[in-house]
Amino acid sequence: MKVPSRWVLHCINCGNRLDNDPRSFTCPKCGDILELLAPPLTKKELVSGSDRLSVWRYQKALPIADSGAVVSMGEGGTPLVPSKHSGKQRGMKRLSFKVEGQNPTGSFKDRGMTVAVSRARLMKARVLVCASTGNTAASLAAYAARGGMDSGVIMPSGKVAAGKLMQAIAHGSRLVQIEDGFDRALKILSETVAKAEDLYLVNSINPYRIEGQKTVAFEIFEQLGDVPDYLVLPVGNAGNISAVWKGFKELREWGVIDRTPRLIGVQAEGASPLAEAYEKSGGRIRPWKQPETIATAIRIGNPVSWKKALNAVNESSGRILAVSDEEILAGRKELATKEGIFVENASATPVAGLGAIQAEVKGDDTVVTVLTGHGLKDSLPREWKKERPRSVSTVKELAEVLLGRQAPNWRN
């Protein structure tokens, strides 16, 4: 199908420009991934799609001109919550959390999926497919169902949180599991899509998905009324950090803003090929064959968008770092018990990574962390499961449990 009018589809490596979407979303000349270049907009045009914050508020910045084709459930418009504890603890006066777990299926994936599925609907695609560690599967299954299309998901066996698996099942997706990890799943699926004409791929290699995900940058700018100094977010397959950078770059190119934030990408130590590549002066990535971390959403050893992610942190004077599973769990617990925000393990990596930038953040710098998925999507850590409901048999015992200590001045 033809690329939308005034948009340009080009290869991020060789610059090859295409008039039509290739089935694999890779460059036919060099095999690298493709990106859409948006037509320039004014600030007034940028926010002309809706009165409320949402992905489709920015419809003119998205490659779907036909509103009748849009498959939406009100995604976007997620809250930007100022920190009450974490910022003070680290000397960051202006720390906020962008809570993406409040999207329709509980993760940031809905931003990209609404655009990718809308494009698929325009193309009259029959079966939408993805490889997934969980959140993409849940989002695809829901949006395909709403758009009247079938969906199929290939997942790494035993590596997907039950909540995410349940969502994909509930929405009627066809599920396939393989023993290898996510990277192998995506490779097999890409080969299948290249040969089966009725399959439409919606992984983040699909440039239409990236266009939806970039809207988080637009929202953060509108909510702050300014550009944050630092933007900290989890990194797995690296589509999100690439999309956020694309959003801020477009705002700057269109004259809406005159500066961009430093991007800080955070990976789990057990699945951190990008952090490794960044430490080696931004060199080429070395794929990890067996990544392992409790942060299942980012348990990826060979990120498809690695080149765009490294470009994003280098161009923004940011960096990519890695945190331990112990630090991730501590961050998740801190958000839940001190900020009232419940996130999945992968979403806690930005909080776990704040310590690494603490020394360079000035007192009045604005720091935004992107919390990508809701806590109900992930299983509880083993030590949290020890917290069981207590049984009581008397009113005094109830008071003591609720107080967490002996009841003072108890009247019998």
Can you tell me about this structure?
There is one protein chain. With 412 residues, this protein is α/β, with parallel strands linked by helices. Among the domains are: 1-37, Rubrerythrin, domain 2 (Single Sheet); 80-106 and 209-377, Rossmann fold, CATH 3.40.50.1100. The protein is built from 14 helices and 13 strands. The chain has helices at residues 43-46, 86-90, 109-122, 135-146, 162-170, 182-195, 207-213, 215-224, 239-253, 273-279, 306-315, 325-339, 349-357, 395-403, and strands at residues 8-11, 17-18, 34-37, 80-82, 94-99, 127-131, 150-156, 174-178, 199-201, 230-234, 262-268, 319-323, 366-371. The strands form three sheets. The protein has a six-stranded mixed beta sheet with strand order 4-5-13-10-11-12, sandwiched between helices. Strands 8-7-6-9 form a four-stranded parallel beta sheet. Strand 10, helix 9 and strand 11 (262-268) form a beta-alpha-beta unit. The longest helix has 15 residues, at 239-253. It is globular and about 80 Å long. The mean pLDDT is 94.
